[in-house]
Amino acid sequence: MNALKRLLPYLRPYRTSILIGALVAVLNNAVGAAGPWLLKLAVDGLQSGVTLGLLAWYALLFVAIAAVAGVLRFYMRQILIGMSRHAELDLRNALFAHLQKLPASFYNKHRTGDIMARLTSDLESVRSVLGPGVMYPLDTISMALFTLTMMFLLSVKLTVAVLLAAPLVSFTVFYLGKITYKLHTRIQQQFSALSDCAEENLAGVRVVRAFAQEDRELGKFNELNHEYVRRNLAMTRVQAAFMPVMVMMFELATVMILLFGGRGIIRGELSLGDFVAFVGYLSMLAWPMIAVGWVANLFQRGAASMKRLCDILDIEPEIAPPPESRRSELPRGEIVFEKVRFCYNDQRTALADLDFRIDAGKIVAFVGRTGSGKSTLISLIPRLFDPTEGRVLVDGIPTTEWNLSELRAMIGMVPQDALLFSDTLRANVCFGVSDATDEHFLVATDVSQINRDVESFRSGYETVVGERGLTLSGGQKGRTALARALMKNPCILILDDALSAVDTQTEDQILGGLRRFMADRTSIIISHRVSTVKHADEIFVLDEGRVVERGTHEQLIALGGYYTELERMQRLEAELEEIDEDSRI
Question: CATH fold of 333-410+492-585, please?
Answer without folding.
Answer: Rossmann fold (3.40.50)
